[in-house]
Amino acid sequence: MQALFKRILVNDIQVSPGDAILVGLSGGADSMVLLDVLLHVADSLQLAILAAHLDHGMRPESADDAAFVARFCRRRDVPLTVGHRDVPALARQHKQGLEEAAREARREFLQQTARVEGCRFIALGHHRNDQVETFLHRLLRGSGLSGLAGMRLRSGPFIRPLLSFSRQDILAYLDDHQIPHVEDASNADTVFTRNRLRHELLPRLRDFNPRIEEHLARLSRRIAVEEDYWTEQVDAYLESSCEEGDDGLWLSRQGLTGLHPALRSRVLRGALLRLRGDLRGIGAKHLASLDDLLDAPRSEAEAHLPGVWAARRYERLWLRTAPPPDPTDFAVVVPGPGVYDLPGGGRLSVSLNQGCLGEDRWATEFDADKVPFPLLVRPFRKGDRFYPCGAPGHRKLKDFFIDAKIDREIRRSWPLVVADEILWLPGLRRGHGRWPQTVGGRVLRLVASGLSRPNQSL
Amino acid sequence: MQALFKRILVNDIQVSPGDAILVGLSGGADSMVLLDVLLHVADSLQLAILAAHLDHGMRPESADDAAFVARFCRRRDVPLTVGHRDVPALARQHKQGLEEAAREARREFLQQTARVEGCRFIALGHHRNDQVETFLHRLLRGSGLSGLAGMRLRSGPFIRPLLSFSRQDILAYLDDHQIPHVEDASNADTVFTRNRLRHELLPRLRDFNPRIEEHLARLSRRIAVEEDYWTEQVDAYLESSCEEGDDGLWLSRQGLTGLHPALRSRVLRGALLRLRGDLRGIGAKHLASLDDLLDAPRSEAEAHLPGVWAARRYERLWLRTAPPPDPTDFAVVVPGPGVYDLPGGGRLSVSLNQGCLGEDRWATEFDADKVPFPLLVRPFRKGDRFYPCGAPGHRKLKDFFIDAKIDREIRRSWPLVVADEILWLPGLRRGHGRWPQTVGGRVLRLVASGLSRPNQSL
């Protein structure tokens, strides 16, 4: 075991002479063996071995465990850091399960200790059976592929040098070397299912194939390698093709539909992960509903997913954690020339001039004698009609917006300048007629500023 | 069931009005239900439904099955083609298992019938439980990810419209519609394992998770989608970066080591598949041995895999189904000027001239008075030494070859022109000295042709 262990440390984990390794030492069989084997190879590999033990405050006897670990480390001359966390309190505080809270507290404690003690690596005692049991546990729970990815031999500072060894290997070593240990009571939450897996299901599976554990460990390792690949692909895609703003994430529909379905599905998961921070409760049917948004002929539609509001807006997919707030109604009265603040940070400047200065997207001009003050700036109202300049006549403003591919949320809040009828849609179109007189007449000039473009495309 | 079935046919399989569908009809419950449901939706979808039954010649009662199927089709007015194959004989002939031979015979018969009858699709009766049982069967057998990919709803002409339905759904339909059927005895080889899976293992798994079948079916479907993606990626890579010649496959080492480990492993599998036609017996450790060839510092090394000989040759990986043949020794005596055939298709032309014509890679010139005839053309022999032009003295020819990154196989067969010592390595280097006299002397000119470049790089 020691020879293989050494090879794994040097070739696969790539420890270097001078490295300090912090062992997460629960006092259970696995971590005690891990510490012992590390101590045996430490000299020849020039490694410094330290240990850290966290008292989770979850069981009355946990102080005994800490004392046991301390005795052992004193005897073997291993520098030990002992920490205390009230895991049940942390769980309540963060609304987590005990298992999850304990894992987080442990990781945080180990990383902090490694920093303080200057350790490059943190060694954990997971072995092949843990790997296989986790795999089966997740397979039975209905995990997707990502959930079936095995623990990594090395992941950040964490290393698992026992991952290729079976529980039997470890127990044999324990016996041979007479290593004391306490009964491991971590994984309290899953201990029931794990025991059933270990004692009921796995023996059955071994009936079908005596080498099933090897196979499943290898499979989960391979899935882990491919997961890393997918993470790279998805991150690269999102980096280049996902716009992240205050109002959520925006993705190009064309970009997504051009991807292979496998990558598309991964990218959508990745986007949801960015948005929510986790994928809890997100399943195949939710991803299918995003596919539907992208593939359906409707250019505006919404879908509700757990913790996610998704919308197709023409050629874009919009993801938010909640639906956008309803636009607030507003009405800005414009009694005459001046500068008027608009809701949402825009401005309208109104002036009367002799002669024209020219129109553009954000400026328009009318014959002042044909436009009665006061003007009103307000958003869309149901039934609004508009006679766009250049069009053959009046039409529903809603239809005009839709033809221009203006998102629903913009349609509902875009400021319209209204006199006796809608005069101007800043950034979009002026109304028909009321042209300034070519010579000598007074010109009403309207200039909007500070508004974003109404139809942004990716 | 019919509404969902119709939706699957139209939306997912995308049948079109006018399509003819050939049903693979064993007479068992699954295919009988498949035929019945297809007949029910045929009119409204404007589909023509035909059937084909193959008598495998594996059981005495198989003629009864054919007769049963024929009666049913006559009554329901379904055009039926019945075929006969002696599957046991085919299995013997192709050295296959019965199961495999039966599957191949069936596919071939169905495809042929579909061609003759002008059917666009061939419908098979696989359902969700088949999917799940196949998944578990392969998982237990130790399949890699590719083996866990589920059957496709549509794959070439084959469609599986029942794939989303459970065995229960199908049996309920059978009952409701009083559909006659025979006991299905296909899958004879795996029937034992399958029965154990169905009756022993699956009930256990349902104890852990009542919806396990749904989960596993979904998982295998997702794996199938990702398999398609990988196939695309691998094919694209091999298309652009794998040289396929008479002597095997050549891949660039640099190209491979630049790939993500997940893609690299897939590409290596893909290359082996191209080479061998299948991946039987190829496991993780064999792929690891290819990785070793690529990663190790030795620039020439070999590995033996099942049905594959692999070699690193400097910056290339060489894959063959068998080791290259040992080079045959040869000796071509050159008594004087003339043209001499070399083994392997090359030629050496020897002439004596007044004055020089110039040297290049394939031509060299010596002072004729300093080179004694006969010359000898022969391959490398152990202990050969060579004084390369421009070098400070003699050295081992083997070392010269290795410095020039000449593959071992080329080293052993490359023709050397020898007088009292090695004069010339055609295409590589002339020996030191014996330069033609600048004025008036006789010049011995050697020209090699028809030899490939000794150090090809990808």
Automatic annotation (TrEMBL), chains A, B:
Alphabetical keyword list? ATP-binding, Cytoplasm, Ligase, Nucleotide-binding, tRNA processing
One Gene Ontology cellular component? cytoplasm
Q: Where do the Lysidine-tRNA(Ile) synthetase C-terminal domain residues begin and end? A: 375-446
**Leading EC class:** ligase
Give GO MF terms, alphabetically.
ATP binding; tRNA(Ile)-lysidine synthase activity
On whether S-adenosyl-L-methionine is a keyword of this UniProt record, the answer is: no
Q: Which Pfam families match?
A: ATP_bind_3 (PF01171), TilS (PF09179), TilS_C (PF11734)
Task: Give the enzyme's EC designation.
Answer: 6.3.4.19
The catalytic activity, as recorded, is: cytidine(34) in tRNA(Ile2) + L-lysine + ATP = lysidine(34) in tRNA(Ile2) + AMP + diphosphate + H(+)
Look up keyword RNA-binding and say if it applies. no
UniProt main location, coarse: cytoplasm
Q: Name one GO biological process term.
A: tRNA modification
Q: Where does ATP bind?
A: 26-31
Where is the protein found, in the record's own terms? Cytoplasm
Any idea what job this protein has? Ligates lysine onto the cytidine present at position 34 of the AUA codon-specific tRNA(Ile) that contains the anticodon CAU, in an ATP-dependent manner. Cytidine is converted to lysidine, thus changing the amino acid specificity of the tRNA from methionine to isoleucine.
Q: What is known of its domains?
A: The N-terminal region contains the highly conserved SGGXDS motif, predicted to be a P-loop motif involved in ATP binding.
NCBIfam families, A to Z:
lysidine_TilS_C, lysidine_TilS_N
What family does the database annotate? Answer: Belongs to the tRNA(Ile)-lysidine synthase family.
Q: What is this protein called?
A: tRNA(Ile)-lysidine synthase
Which species is this record about? Syntrophotalea carbinolica (strain DSM 2380 / NBRC 103641 / GraBd1)
The organism's taxonomy opens as: Bacteria, Pseudomonadati, Thermodesulfobacteriota, Desulfuromonadia, Desulfuromonadales
The encoding gene: tilS
